[in-house]
Amino acid sequence: MTAYRQHCPVASATEVLGHTWTLLVVRELLHGNSRVSEIARGVPGMSSALLARRLKQLAEAGVVTRLSSTGEGRFALTPAGRDLAPVVEQLGRWGRRWLPPPRSGDLKPNLLLLDICRGMDPARLPREKVSLHLRFAETPPPRWWWLVLSPEGASATETDPRLPTAARIDCTVSALAGVWLGHRTWREALDDRAIRFEGTREAVRNTIGWLGRNRFTLSVSASNRSMAQQFD
């Protein structure tokens, strides 16, 4: 790790947290992912060797602890690690407020859908398990994805779950990301046909309500609610 050799606590903290991928590993642990494979799913561009090294460094710094288990390694945040939650949250809010929308080359359906599933409120999801079928126009295979929704939460899959389909959505990844991150409204995306629904007006209204918005979006859900009301 880099040693800044300064008395400043910011410098000391940066020595632990300022390396590539480190805060994203902490983000995954804050989401409750303890197994190495679960953490790796949220940082797919990170090599397994680097992930192991970062986890070791965080353990040495007292940020994470290795859990006793057989088979796959599992880790958990220590009190010091859990205390990073507001730091990660504020970084996300800062990035959403001051940085431009993500570049098209940085958009990946699997990560976007993972983020959307994490952000869904289980209390607002349907009582019976259903799926949303998404068809992405501009990406290489797999172009088809399904979101499985139930009161227990949401998950994304590339395999047809053989569930009742609440709605089908044809879109570009950038259009869905733009709406999810609050850079554009549902109305704008629908008007320019970057997002197209197949389903009843009730299904469209429900889908918009289920998907919601990323928590870092400044105007959190007022736009979603007003848009959903147009389909009443």
TrEMBL record:
SUPFAM superfamilies, A to Z: Winged helix' DNA-binding domain
Occurrences of domain HTH hxlR-type (ranges): 8-103
Annotated CDD domains: HTH_ARSR
Database matches in InterPro entries: ArsR-like_HTH, HTH_HxlR, WH-like_DNA-bd_sf, WH_DNA-bd_sf
Coiled coil, from the record: none
Any Pfam family matching the protein: HxlR
Protein name: Transcriptional regulator
